[in-house]
Amino acid sequence: MSAFAGVRIVDFTQGLAGPMAAMLLGDYEADVIKIEPPGGDRLKDHPGYITWNRNKRILTLDLANETDRQKARDLIALADVAMFDHAPGGLEALGFDAETLTQAHPALIHVWMPPYGTTRAWAHLPSHHSLLTALTGVAFRQGAYADQPIHLILPLCHYGQAVMGAASIGAALYERTRSGQGQAVTVSGLHGMSEVTGPVKMLAGPPLPRGQPLGASPSYRLYECADGQWLFLGTLFANFYHKAVEVLGLGDRWLDFVADPALARETLKAVFLTRPRAEWLELFLEHAVPAAPVGSREDWFASDCVAEAGLRLTFDHPERGKVHMPAPPARLSVTPASVRGLARPLEGDPGWAPRPAPERRIGEHGDQPLSGVRVLDLGTVIAGAYAGAVLANLGADVIKIEPHEADPFRSDGGGFMAYNRGKRGLGIDLKLPAARELFYEMVRQADVVVDNYRLGVRERLGIDYETLKAINPRLISCSITAYGRGGSRSPRPGFDPLLQAEGGMMAGQGGDGEPILHTIPVNDVATAGVVAFSVIAALNARDRTGEGQEIITSLMAQSLTFQYGEVTTYEGRPPNDPGDRDCIGVRALHRYYECANGWIAIVCETEVEARGLAGALDLELGDARAALTAQRDGPLAQALARALARMPREEALHRLRQARVPAAPAIRGVEAYESEWLWDERLFDIWDHPRLGEFISVRSFSDFSRTPAGYIRPTPDLGEHSAEVLESFGIPPGEIESLFATGAVFGPDAVVARMSKSARPGDGGAALATI
């Protein structure tokens, strides 16, 4: 029996985000009934539909029909969770809004996942990733050669919305076991964008630079080799970079390279062109230098490496034949996920009998969904650290544990501040016996431990799962590695771009041209969301079993998670949309266009929309059906570009809006902080760091009607709360004093020494990878 066995979900959502959120819960044995309109899900022909709706039963209902609406009401009355993705106003018209349904069913968790936000502004737009990234400034934050928005080939914000939808539903279910009450949960497209690309701005600091398409730092960059093949050099930290320079035969130039990154970049570019890629990769592997080849997602998903890790599943589809899809992205040792079958029609009675309302547990109700959950956070850099921040946003007490040398990603930059907000800081040297014993005492009182150590480090430190389980059998231990804990690659070091490269993301974005580094650290943020969801799943399981468990996941697993739809494959499947150098879109009627004073995004997918576009801009369209597949840089695109270039942006948007053509302004990243709509949507939060001053960053990754999510603490300095944390764990004052005296524990004074160190080689690439 898995984590959500017995949970009943009625899923009214379509497309990617909502169905995938329900899928993640269904993988842990939630019983999901998906309600589809008579014409089917709007993405029913997308290959990803098969994966996003696995383990579900499908029921066709016409919600415009009162008889079918009553059938839907009857199902909702028996469910634990009801999920919707209608635009603002749509649920009220049906009588399925949160207020109506939660009043009728107090234990119901009502989940709303609108494509943009919760207000009526832009509510008329159909769900499109290009429009969401345009409206939020994300399209202008991707590294590019030209000063233009970039079309992201992967719908990353929709995937982020899916993962946060699943995590938030799990958190609401966990809270319900304490309060006995349901509530309304909202996870909009803006929440998904917040988790994936979370904008952050230091009000007193300079604006962050825009990333470069190949990577800004010589140590963390794409390089072309002698055979025309590309690799990514992933030496984020100085020790790896120094070793790479020596392997390249340039050890005597090390100090020159540190002093002059531009010199290093040009020198390395020339050296890589002297040998074929395979030779460089063999050398780097021999010397444990992080590097990876650029390849296609199709080859990656079909590789022995993915199969060896158990990340590829195969099913027989009644129409498509053999279908290959990614496996669940994390492994829970006691209540594992499973894919039991593809979507199937609901035939007859669903088998849901009425149940008594859940009882409230006296004294366990908190102010936030995860109130009372204690997390010992050993995570570093992005993936591990950010997972803790997501849990903190949901109300967990997350304690960031760092050694004297600190998280190697620690800085005063916006990335570190965003990925570590909401925690308390504890400085501890786990190599010392006294510190290890202290950690064991904290484990006795903790609920969760999260780490992203390389293979074998937990065992050397004496904090592996078996050791911790013996101390606290209810503990949930989650460990993240680059390549998993089984197989030939498991000992290797790894960073997000290595999986971007080998997992096909860079080649997909670059198309037939050179590969492109995603400015968004795709696999890191995917891992953070998956870890948060997996921990919450394990907390729900523990409520039923009384038992903790180990969670294992990897960056390699996440190289598929945010490509579920793109890697799902079968004989004759349609190809994925190709990218391009400074990709401006995929077709003439699905791309960005520059107006006289700014950019807009246009996405037309029907002949009616195509004809409306032609009429709004006084253009000769010809065959509307053919126009929908016209090339992104062909004659039609050129005519549209000429017409719009002469027109102010507001006039163009007004005309298109009047013609019911899906279009939106493509704002620059810095404009997002000045967008009245985004502030009205409560996307941002202004908060104060005691040492650095004011920041603007995202407020939350979901909203709850009764137990609001959100940060209650700023980002901690190194060891800032050491004494406070130990006191909260009941450590006697005399013992605390002794731990400080011996150096087993240290406090905020350590930050002075840390901040005085010079920047590490590779910092520039790391910073740009987090903008």
Automatic annotation (TrEMBL):
Biased composition (Basic and acidic residues): 357-366
SUPFAM superfamilies: CoA-transferase family III (CaiB/BaiF) (SSF89796)
Annotated spans, Disordered: 345-366
Gene3D superfamilies the record matches: Crotonobetainyl-coa:carnitine coa-transferase, domain 1, formyl-coa transferase, domain 3
GO molecular function, one term: transferase activity
Pfam families: CoA_transf_3
Keywords, comma-separated and alphabetical: Transferase
Organism domain of life: Bacteria
InterPro entries in the record: CoA-transferase_III, CoA-Trfase_fam_III, CoA-Trfase_III_dom3_sf, CoA-Trfase_III_dom_1_sf
Protein name, entry field: CaiB/BaiF CoA transferase family protein
Species the sequence originates in: Phenylobacterium terrae
